[in-house]
Automatic annotation (TrEMBL):
It is found in: Membrane. It comes from Branchiostoma floridae (Florida lancelet). The chain crosses the membrane at residues 37-56, 68-87, 93-111, 118-137, 143-162, 174-192. The keyword Transmembrane applies. GO terms for molecular function: alkenylglycerophosphocholine hydrolase activity; hydrolase activity. It catalyses: a 1-O-(1Z-alkenyl)-sn-glycero-3-phosphoethanolamine + H2O = a 2,3-saturated aldehyde + sn-glycero-3-phosphoethanolamine; a 1-O-(1Z-alkenyl)-sn-glycero-3-phosphocholine + H2O = a 2,3-saturated aldehyde + sn-glycerol 3-phosphocholine. The gene is LOC118413243. This is lysoplasmalogenase. Its EC number is 3.3.2.2. It is a multi-pass membrane protein. Belongs to the TMEM86 family.
Length: 282
């Protein structure tokens, strides 16, 4: 069974609202210089759709969904940031509010990705790039922006570091592809915000809005997809029995392992009256 393909088939329908609302945003292409509550809603809808995607994929207060809850929180704060940035042309304070909302979102993403494995060499290399990015923006920064942008850039690259650190390309982990989604999402976030920063503080970039929003929505999609490595009922159809195996079953017909239990988010001690068996994977 090709599990990534199975999961994609499961999550695909849940992503339809995201793609529809993204298309609506580009089709309407409302004037950014004339912000309204309607234009704010249209801009926020794709990210709000990803919030629904995370909720539909599974949510609870248990440790199993700690990662999903943090990603959901990051998406919610991102949507708030989107709404504030709509009004930045009216009053510059809204840009700062938006930065704060996105900074909180990045912190939640960083905590979600975790700090194990640490991989300090990767972090050191990315920190050097972050310093270079700040150096490019610094000549155009004045007042409070000198500090806020510096902190924000640090959070951006910290997020990418943690996304890259948890990615093990040569691992046999079936869920490496979801970690790759998170890593690519973090990278696209940096590209999007770099374009935004250069356009706002240094020089105008042609087609900046289209470039910024396309990379931004793709970034949020990648990060949201990373919750797919959690247990999904639609992808656990290979579980056939939990309890004592059929006495007439052949060893070739069933396959039981501790790894399978861990993959499904279950623990062996939960099955005190028997063992969990699944169809042999061909």
């Amino acid at each position: 069974m090709n599990r990534p393909v199975t999961v994609l088939k499961s999550v695909g329908p849940k992503l339809v609202p995201f793609f529809k609302t993204t298309c609506i945003y580009y089709i309407l292409w409302l004037d950014a210089d004339k912000p309204t509550l309607f234009s704010a809603l249209i801009k926020c809808l794709p990210v709000l759709s990803l919030c629904v995607f995370v909720l539909l994929h599974g949510m609870s207060l248990t440790d199993m969904h700690t990662y999903a809850r943090r990603i959901l929180g990051g998406l919610v704060f991102s949507a708030l940031g989107d709404a504030f940035l709509i009004w930045q042309h009216i009053d510059g304070i809204y840009f700062i509010y938006g930065m704060v909302m996105f900074a909180i979102a990045h912190v939640l993403y960083i905590v979600s990705f975790g700090f194990s494995p640490l991989r300090l060499p990767v972090g050191a290399a990315l920190f050097g790039v972050a310093v270079g990015m700040y150096a490019v923006l610094y000549p155009g920064l004045h007042g409070v922006y000198s500090v806020l942008v510096g902190v924000y850039v640090l959070l951006l690259w910290l997020m990418l570091w943690r996304g890259m650190a948890r990615l093990q390309v040569f691992s046999t982990d079936l869920w490496t592809w979801t970690k790759l989604c998170a890593c690519v999402g973090a990278l696209l976030f940096i590209i999007s915000d770099t374009l935004l920063g250069v356009n706002k503080f240094r020089i105008p970039i042609p087609y900046n809005r289209a470039l910024i929003m396309t990379t931004y929505y793709a970034a949020q999609l990648g990060i949201a997809l990373s919750v797919a490595d959690l247990k999904d009922p639609a992808t656990t159809d290979d579980i056939t029995t939990c309890g004592a195996p059929d006495m007439g079953a052949s060893p070739n017909d069933v396959h039981c392992s501790k790894d399978m239990l861990e993959l499904k988010g279950m623990s062996a001690h939960s099955f005190s009256n028997g063992i969990c068996c699944s169809k042999k994977m061909h």
